[in-house]
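Q: My collaborator sent me two sequences in one message, no labels, and asked for predicted structures for both. Can we handle them in order? The first one she listed is below.
A: Yes, handling them in the order given. First sequence, followed by its structure tokens:
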Amino acid sequence: MTKLTGLTLVECPRDAMQGIKTPIPTQVKIDYLTHLLGLGFDVLDCGSFVNPKSIPQMADTAEVIQAISGVQSMTKLLVIVANERGATSALAFPKIRYLGFPFSLSETFQRKNTNSSRSGAFKRLGQIQSIAEVSGKEVVAYLSMAFGNPYKDPWNTEEVTEWAEKIASLGIRTISLADTLGHADPETVSYLFEHLQQRLPNIEIGVHLHAKVEDWLPKVNAAYNSGCRRFDGALGGVGGCPLAKDELIGNLPSEKVFNWLLDRNTSNLKIDINWEECRLLALRTYQGIGI
């Protein structure tokens, strides 16, 4: 895949794997991520340095990243961290470019996800940003529950804007709006993007949407037409946050979404990717079968 100016495609096998209860063998993960690094995605969300009791599937992240660090690729690595300890662990790997931090607009979900209040999580985020700055890494702040929540916590677009501005004030330059439970509708997606781009013109605003396989297009179309150029997806549409709800709403299916985006971003570029082959490989990997 050739890099397209202005379009950032983030493949998220970490988000696909983390909710799978059956352990995927470490070597299977290594083989799969090595394959993905050869496809040319801009960013690979490849693991997380979090408490393994919370996310057992990610307990081998250090071993996996150590193994794939020797792969020659222009793709940048991203890992999720929930506190300063996780950020410090990531510093041991020069190949990691981005530290992703999940900040929730829902107070209830913030406590479920990172065992912290929103004010405590914001303080942690500032400390992680300081760690990143001195180490040459960058922070990607995920605004989870950005389109509503099931806990009856207050939510409105003004609150999304307020917290996005607070996060930007820390010096963070990438914010991704996460539709954790698939609540987003095209009208809200369009409004938030247009509004945030006006308020934060120097910040890259992306989307980490969750949707059923048949429901991705209206949301992606709304984001793209409103100026969004950073999209997260997972081959096969697998995934979702295991701490959000028992029934997971899947990630955007990369094989559909990324192909759709690439078709609209250029009319002359040939993309040499067999998307169906990639989808099937992803599903075999997530079942622990591997390549």
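Q: And the one she listed second?
A: Here it is, processed independently of the first:
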Amino acid sequence: MSYNREAAVQYAEKWWNSYNPVYMAFELDCTNYVSQCLRAGGAPMRGHPNRSSGWWYVNRNWSFSWTVAHSLYWYLRGSTTGLRAHAVSTADQLLPGDVICYDFNGDGRWQHNTFVVAKDSNNMPLVNAHTVNSRMRYWEYEDSIAWTTDTKYAFFHIVS
């Protein structure tokens, strides 16, 4: 099965400011939302029932990588089966349906994830997100109270 970016973006647009009752909602919901978008695009799950393995959501149970920003970052960096991604070096290399991870403190702990839904006139990503529900927000997140001058980004192009 190939990843359907259009379906993933449609899902992101539908649920950016509310919660799909099929899934649990979390106080810190950014990664759960990104995972739902990826799944809506047909990204394959694997690892169930081991919470620390793979990327999955089954019967209101889930892997750490489904809901924890830091865990999804490490999953996307290393997965060679199921949902896979390639790290790219700049934001303009991303397409709608891709993922951006944020380390606001620059300390190696990834605290936030967003989902690319469009590109602006300069070919830069616009993202949707949960926790602070956002639509078509500029990818750098400099308007966030969490953003610092130490912020680091990871850009993942989804390949399956």
